[in-house]
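assembly run, all chains below
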Amino acid sequence: MEGDPGHFSARVYQTPRYVDISKCTSCADCEAVCPVELQNDYEEGLTTRKAIFKKYTQAIPGTYAIQKTSPAPCKLACPAGLNVQGYVQMVKMGNYKRALEIIMEDLPFPGILGRVCTHGCEDACRRCEVDQPVAIRDLKRLAADQYDPREIQLSSKPKRDEKVAIIGSGPAGLSTGYFLARKGIGSTVFEALPEPGGMLRVGIPEHRLPREVLEKEIEVVTNLGVEIKTNTPFGPNLTIDQLFQQGFKAVYLAIGAHKGIELGVPGENLKGVRQGVAFLKDVALKGTTEIGKKVAIIGGGNVAIDVARSAIRLGAEEVSVIYRRSRDEMPAFKEEIQATLDEGVNIVYLSAPQEILSDDGEVAGVRCIRMELGKTDSSGRRSPIPIPGSEFDLEVDQVISAIGQQPDLSSLTDITGLEFSRWGTIEVNSVSYATDIEGVFAGGDAQAGPWTVIGAVATGKEAAESIERYFDGVDMSAGREIAPIEDVEYRPVDEVEPGVDRVKMPELPAAQRAGNFNQVELGYTEEEGQSEASRCINCSYCSDCGLCVEACLPGAVNHMELPVERDLDVGAVILTSGTDVFDPAKLEQFYLYKHNPNVMTSIEFERILSATGPTNGHLVRRSDDKEPKKIAWLQCVGSRDVNQCDNGYCSSVCCMYAIKEAVIAKEHAPSDLDCAIFNMDIRTFGKDYERYYERSKELGVRFVQARVHTIEEDSNTGNLLLRYATVDGEVLTEEYDMVVLSVGMEPARSAVEMAKEIGIELNQYNFVQSEEVAPVASSKPGIYVAGVFQGPKDIPHSIMEASAAACAAGLDLSSARGSLVKERVFPEEKDITGEEPRIGVFVCNCGTNIGGIANVPEIVDYVKGLPNVVHAEHNMFSCSQDTQEKMVNVIKENNLNRVVVAACSPITHEPLFQETLKDAGLNPFLFDMANIRNQCTWVHSDEKEKATEKSKDLVRMSIARSRYLEPLEYLTVGVNNPALVIGGGISGMTAALGFADQGFPTTLIEKTDELGGSAARQLKKTWKGSDITAYIQGQINKVENHQNITVLKNTEVVDSSGFVGNFETELKVGDLSQTIKHGATVVATGGRATDTDEYLYGQNPRVTQWHDIEENLDKFDDINTVVFINCVGSRDESHPYCSKLCCTASIQEALQVKERFPDARIFVLHRGIRTYGEREDLYREAREKGIIFIKYTPETKPTITEVNGKPEVLVFDAILGRYIQIEADLVNLATAIEPEENNAVTSAFKLPVNEDGFIMEAHVKLRPVDCSTDGVYICGMVHYPKPFEESITQAQAAVSRAVNVLCRQQVNVEPIVSTIDQDLCIGCGLCIKTCSFSAIEAETIEGLGVRAKNISALCKGCGVCAVACPQQAIYMNHFNNDQINAAIKAGKSIA
Amino acid sequence: MVARLLDLAGIERNRVQLRRVSAAEGALFANYVKEVSQITTELGPFDTSKYRLRLAAIKRALGTRRLRWLSGMEHRLSIEENVYGEKTNPELMQEVLDESIQSEYHKALILEMLELQPLSVREMAEISGLPVYTVSLRLNELENERKAEFHSHEGTTARFASLVASPMSEAKAADDSDYPLLKDSDHIKVQKAVSH
Amino acid sequence: MSKDVIGAVMVVGGGISGMQSALDLANSGYYVYLIEESSAIGGVMSQLDKTFPTNDCTM
Amino acid sequence: MSDNYEPKILAFLCNWCAYAGADLAGVSRFQYPPTLRVIRTMCSGRVDPLYIAGGLINGYDSVFISG
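ok done. output:
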């Protein structure tokens, strides 16, 4: 991110959704087939979701997305790059066909590799970090056993005419033929031996790889047209040149490595000594070979083990394997070594043959020498060193050497231009596998030396790619290096529950193995396979199995989508990155959070309560699904806590949401649920919060003042024991069914990193550092912050900050307002007055959502029969782009003047179809929707005929209604853009400047004769201690000589009329009146501290209130005891609300006193300290400095008596359990705050006022700044008492909301409004009274008298007035009587 | 009010159900539908022909200015204070309401009966099942309101006729068979087009 | 303030605050890029069942 | 009551509350009997008592209003 305010360029990284938003209709068919189950973070892990998911049912955008990271470690470890996670998931689902399709994309031999593969993938499997790796190889085999690989349809490119000659039919040769065939290139395989298969045939004995499996999978290759010629060895009568002459365009050498390596010991060429590979070849080709009684096998690899196990089967009595290193270094498979030991072979470790002893030409024994392991050699294994003099003899009659293989190059040596490596393998380009001879390629063991089968297949795949490029004349190695992938975040392992061990592969009992070559590993059953496959932890989340692609009818899924990095040119930035909820797992030893399922965070509890949550809103315990009888809430978990976590602040919302959750829980629970909230103080300081708190007490919520330190658990019932000390010192233990941890908020980790990266200063708690005079600005000009990232706050305050930030950003960019906004242009509207209704009906299938249940074609035919219907059709997805265009043409061609769409809900899709009507030149209100999905097929899915019948009825009702639909025009109302601000305090001035700086002429009126308001008079410092007197004076000067602001002092509002954008207000300036026209009004008449007659206030000079104590500090000098009393007149009958500022102000003053008089004793008498947010630091500082806090209750209010001139305070201290007497030198009261007298304003603008006199906003939470009458906004203390910086925030928010209106020339009003017929109206005024939006006013018309008149701009179209009118004189646009009656009649009758 | 009228007409009050559902309470809505369907099934099919006359009376009563005024004002009258700060006591309010509903219903019933043909008090009592005394009392009120008048004599029985065209008959004259309810007067449409 | 001012704003975070800022700006004639980390906007508030003090549903 | 008798209920659902609730019941696939014939109104206050009478006259078995 660089640039400066007004012109930033930000680089944004967008992860792909893999689902096209414009096509996806969120029909959820893909989710049904997706095999991958993941933790559902939205449900806090209480339920699972699929890899393809919608975050929540009503998510916006309402389409699906796939969670996917880079390829899983198993796929990267596999030489052939198989999509391991993909086919393992398919095996888990029992979809073996699909599993094979995935495997055979990169491998022709699933069954073979399912048995003999070296499964490097299992070593890379991240399940090892949990318990054992997933048995991937055995799962591949299960897939091949369950479904015949030959029946898999493989995609291949169109046939080409080039031909390739392949030498050698081992895995490398055959797979090259397979991959070439799929590229449309024919090939012929020349095999020297009588049977195809190479090492698969002759190298691996049948007990590991049965013949039928080999035959079956070779057929997979031949079925693709690959021709195999056996008994045609490469050599003199089969040379490269001959092949080229025969028309082959390329040759692929894959002769493998069949030659054994000499032992290099005397006596090696005795008759009884032979090579392991030759031995296995004889067994494979001839079924048997001569075998000695006592056989010694030299070597430790797979070949040695195969020979040993074959020897046992052929009847050798004693077989011993001689290996020069120890067991750990043996290269053979672990499970093979174990199997051979089971079959009675003994392995002699750490010894090597020195000489083969003979007895008259026959092998009689072998002399070996003991070895010990020295330093590790180049192969990474410790090299064996013979121990001198440790020779020993083994009496054997046959010796088989299996110490390795190498390619038999005899047939290749005479080819000019073919290079060989020093290990005797063919030299090729490592990427393209091309030799130096044009058109000649090589692969498999012949090229790589003896390696794995899968390795050979991989070289085959690469060679095929090179050959195709060679034929196309394209550079063979371009773009084929595999880029290493670093720092990938795979799915975290801790999300996986351990403890499900690897399923043991069933084997033939050892006894039954002798004498036969039956397959030893019997393979998984389906159940075993599926349970083993479910151990896969889906490292890259989505397994790329492709099922969702097939399931998606509109074809919206696109796995090839790449991440996008975009540069955005913006004028300003607003950081609203929100919060991470505190994770109590860190404090697990105290709260047993992860340990006991009945301890949950408040967010999890919210999900349990939610109707769309895991339990559909049914309140049950997680351990046993029983309905709880007793629930406890523990407050301040992760907040106000500096020893266990460093969140010293109060998160401001936990008390309120705990009370709400308790109240709602009581509603959900049938029986009388006992809810207890364990707290230090209950902080309900916001507007209407205190009443909410009082009402919760009436509903029986218990508040226990105690901080529970640890929770114990009764393990068999799962209940929880809370031990706590009450105020009077008694220790109690209570048992609860559930405990909810009211977790606090922390700034989102990702946001903190981002902020550091773009250079935003953060404070000690990692919230954005901001000044009180500019609460939404950050340390970097042009970048603003709002919401919880600025500091812990509730939703109303967040919304105020969001609007304030919008205003601040708007301020910077006002010169470029409207520059980038595009207006959509529609064709001219057709006039249909007088036309007979010509109705077009479009019934939607919505994939299977409707079509799968209701008989859509039957509905369409039925509808064709109804009167006035001139066109009816059905579509797969009516809301998709292409169908919309089709509908526009259909409307034009059939000259329709009514449209009915039978599909989903008008709430979500009506605007979309109305746009379509506009595109077709038809008035958007000549449209109606029949909801046959959400309210029919989705909810009657098991009653198909009745759903169809109901759909017919619903469509018929829509058609009946549509006959009476009339075109309606959007009402446009002109807007004049000056603004009126009432009240010259901090809020008023900020608002006025906000308008003026954006170029809107503003009138600021002030009742008194000077600006500054109550804050100026009283407030010296903010709670953070910054002096604001200078700031206030600065604002006053700015306002008074700003050319866009006219300041009218000593001015009051007399009356006002008009509506949003068109207000006319009459003012009394001094004693002359003046009317002004303006588009918006901001009321900021502020509030003031009330005086009280309690506690000798006004009678004793030593008793002061709020900040007046500062004067007393100078006046009196005998200051050694000061008492602060909070909640004087607040939270009682006179003011049943919390004035929010007093706690902070009292502590601020107390600290000031302590500073000036360090040894003074200071008391604060309070009813719960409410220093919310970061103000908690002040409270902690006060306690540290020895200020004594005493809590009193309304019943034990302190009393003051005057004792020789000084106030003596008597208060009951609950902790000490008795009254104490304080001779105070000074007493300071925090009295309630009331709104300034505002009747004139509220009656002029018809603003409702709550019981406490504060003006009511449109919605206390979501529209805290707007009033119910549009165009009027409130800010500052007139809304509710609030500290200095929150007033500024709310003022800026009011400006932003008002600018929404002022910045336009005219305002469009929805035409769904009421129309009064003034001939029928008798002026009874009933409608005016019933209208809650004051959208009807009385108008006197001469000759007729008083009549009701609509203010359409304010009308919400609810129609209550139409019902109340005794004269039935009110006509509701779009919902009039004709339309509703028609629908009523149509619902029942057939016509 | 509708419930009271249904009681008077002898139609099960439960045939009209009200419920409160918020936008998030999907499950609750589904349960309410089950509940209402259950109630309706128990009530059995509603045979309109049996109640045609009395339903017409209800409709006519609901159309009267008096009942619409009362339904509009009911909330304000019973909850809010009047100018002098007094609140009407609820029982009195209920009494007034019941009495006016009943009287309007009876008058509507009579007018409906007279709609078919002129009838005598005794005949009307038989058809409607109302006591003779009530019929004559209401008929008297109708005469004062000049909605009904003496029609003719037959022997000693006097017959009366309605002077008011009921919305029902007006509908019959206007168009097809069914009963349109609240007819939008045409000139509203004209007036609307002009105003904006 | 740079000379060629761009009439667009980037709002980082699609929770309740982000949505409110975006709406206010869009209605005041500015082009808004709303940047959201997860697959849908709504933030923590969308997880809540009801909100205080009115007990409205958060959806 | 014969089981094939399917009551017909005229339902007035307020656009902002009940209708949206019904949509959510659909999204969450809560099944309920197909007896409703829904008419969407901007507010439950719009339901004129005459519509209720109208519903019964037209032969519905009951009228269900949900705000």
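Chain B touches chain C through four residues (CB under 8 Å).

The first helix of chain B runs from residue 2 to 9.

not gonna interpret more than that til we talk
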